[in-house]
Amino acid sequence: MKRDSRLSGVLHILLHMARQPGPQTSEILARAMETNPVVVRRLMAGLREQGLVRSEKGHGGGWVIARDLERITLRDIYEALGQPEILALGNRTEAPGCLVEQAVNAALGSAFDEAEALLLRRFGEVTLAQLSADVVAMMPDATEAMTLENAHEA
Asked: What is the pLDDT of residues 119-143, one digit of tens each?
């Protein structure tokens, strides 16, 4: 099963945007993610609908973060993406009348629900400001500022 990496991708985009002055085009953000600008626009659409980003048209336009980083949590972004499935595991449902399947599904379902609730609670505690600070802490002392063009250089 393919994993859904949209949350990770959007966080990547937003953290790059947080370090750049002014609007960033889909083309520039796509280069930072090594993807197509259409993918960036699709990812950003849900965030725009939730008021997390906005797009500015015309010359010098592009995407900007619409809220203070302290006011955007991982949960906000997760919800703006349409709440993708968190767990790849699921219950078997081929024999709903089977008592063994019922017992297994009850035990697993309870564990899945607890794990999801814990993860969502944690998502609500982590802000983009915290992640941005983590990025800064990981940066080597450099005379050259990190740009979208040089951020991925080894």
From this structure: 999 999 999 999 999 988 888 765 4
Range list of β-strands (E), the chain: 53-56, 62-65
- List pLDDT tens digits, range 56-68: 888 889 999 999 9
Structurally, at CATH architecture level, domain 6-138 sits in Orthogonal Bundle (1.10)
Question: For the purposes of burial, counting CB atoms within 10 Å of the CB of 74, is it exposed (0-12), middle (13-18) or buried (19 or more)?
Answer: buried
Domain ranges of the chain: 6-138
Query: Using an 8 Å Cβ cutoff, are 89 and 59 in contact?
Result: no
Per-residue tokens: 79: 């919800």
pTM metric for this prediction: 0.83
Q: How far is the CA of 46 from the CAs of 18, 65, 146, 154, in angstroms?
A: 18, 13, 27, 32
Structure tokens belonging to residue 2: 């393919």
- Cα gap 96→76, rounded to integer Å: 35
Q: How far from chain centre, in Å, is Cα 50?
A: 14
